[in-house]
Design goal:
100 residues; 2 strands; two-stranded antiparallel sheet; mainly alpha; 434 Repressor (Amino-terminal Domain)
């Protein structure tokens, strides 16, 4: 591994925003509340594995797991496919916490 130029910290010690040229700073997202969902419950009611649900939705099993655990929110097209598969409205599966 080469030593960094004099006066510069090694790459692993740089701040995230220093990795981008001036004028192209990465935006830091504000606090985001994950969308809660009933996907795991709906899947269990039908006795489907994550792999079976993933196959029906044409996504990976890891994607289903990430959505179920709240680590990932589905895209809008995927949310529509999920709603159609379970014959429910999107709002009946996903809850963003907003009052109605």
């Amino acid at each position: 591994m080469r030593a960094p130029p004099a006066g510069r910290p090694p790459p692993c010690q740089k701040r995230p925003c220093d990795r981008y040229p001036a004028g192209r700073r990465r935006l830091r997202p504000g606090p985001v509340s994950p969308v809660k969902n009933r996907l795991k419950v709906l899947r269990a009611e039908r006795d489907w594995s994550q792999a079976e649900l993933a196959g029906r939705l044409d996504v990976s099993r890891q994607a289903v797991n990430a959505i179920e655990t709240g680590r990932h929110d589905p895209s809008l097209p995927l949310a529509f496919r999920i709603a159609r598969l379970f014959e429910l409205r999107i709002e009946d599966i996903f809850d963003d916490g907003a009052r109605r």
